[in-house]
């Protein structure tokens, strides 16, 4: 009886693994001047224009999700931004009160808008409109974009042409993690607004996002006090048995 009781407690406390499910992109929506072309399987989309910032979002609160898929620039032309948004609300590109996270990856260093857009992967906080200016180009706080962290190995390294990368993201209200090809690149703590997950392009054509899957984000680690709790349950069971004698 004691072992059965303890097993039940463990089962209640241990995180339950959820199978990743493919995501149907046909219900998503675009913001900005991009051209997002959905594949027939509804699990792949290609943005084909070199233009101002544009996003393709899932239109649902996405905190608590782990998302994975692939990203690939299918051209040798240009060297600009690809990536993702987290906590985004429909219309935020032109919303002066916006508050969301931008994960962008630039292929090469380039001076534009009076500043240098740096090669590499990073995460920034957007706190207002995001347009074709120094904010989107070089993470300028004066234009509503504040860089929070650069990636561990890809922080100053751009993506490669015609190369497929796998990505994994975990999005919670207090933590965001981003892995590329199985290597954790970004891991940041804070207080983050809820909102949509989406794909992001700026000044880069022919980018394909594919194979997106989502599942419930991993649960927090079990408390260090768990062994003491179980010992307490065991002691309580022993006292009950003794009292019945």
UniProtKB/TrEMBL annotation:
InterPro entries membership: ConA-like_dom_sf, Thrombospondin_C, VPLPA-CTERM
The keyword Coiled coil is annotated on this UniProt entry: no
UniProt signal peptide: 1-20
UniProt entry keywords in alphabetical sequence: Membrane, Signal, Transmembrane, Transmembrane helix
Domain TSP C-terminal: 16-221
GO biological process: cell adhesion
Highest taxon, organism lineage: Bacteria
SUPFAM superfamilies: Concanavalin A-like lectins/glucanases (SSF49899)
Keyword field contains Acetylation: no
Alphabetized GO MF terms: calcium ion binding
GO cellular-component term (any): extracellular region
Regions that span the bilayer: 220-239
Entry protein name: VPLPA-CTERM protein sorting domain-containing protein
């Amino acid at each position: 009886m004691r072992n059965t009781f303890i097993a039940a407690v463990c089962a209640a406390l241990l995180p339950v693994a959820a199978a990743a499910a493919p995501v149907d992109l046909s219900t998503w929506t675009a913001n900005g001047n991009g051209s997002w072309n959905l594949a027939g399987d509804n699990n792949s989309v290609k943005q084909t224009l070199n233009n101002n910032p544009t996003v393709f979002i899932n239109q649902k609160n996405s905190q608590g999700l782990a998302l994975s898929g692939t990203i690939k620039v299918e051209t040798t032309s240009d060297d600009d931004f690809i990536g993702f948004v987290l906590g985004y609300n429909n219309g935020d590109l032109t919303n002066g009160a916006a508050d969301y996270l931008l994960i962008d990856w630039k292929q090469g260093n380039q001076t534009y808008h009076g500043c240098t857009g740096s090669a590499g992967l990073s995460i920034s906080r957007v706190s207002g409109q995001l347009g074709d200016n120094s904010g989107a180009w070089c993470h300028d706080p004066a234009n509503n974009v504040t860089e929070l962290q650069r990636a561990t190995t890809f922080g100053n390294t751009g993506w490669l042409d015609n190369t497929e990368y796998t990505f994994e993201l975990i999005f919670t209200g207090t933590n965001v993690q981003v892995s590329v090809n199985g290597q954790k690149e970004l891991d940041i703590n804070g207080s983050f607004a809820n909102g949509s997950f989406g794909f992001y392009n700026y000044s880069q054509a022919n980018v394909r996002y594919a194979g997106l899957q989502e599942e419930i984000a991993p649960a927090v680690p079990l408390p260090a006090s768990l062994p003491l709790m179980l010992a307490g349950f065991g002691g309580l069971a022993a006292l009950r048995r003794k009292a019945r004698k």
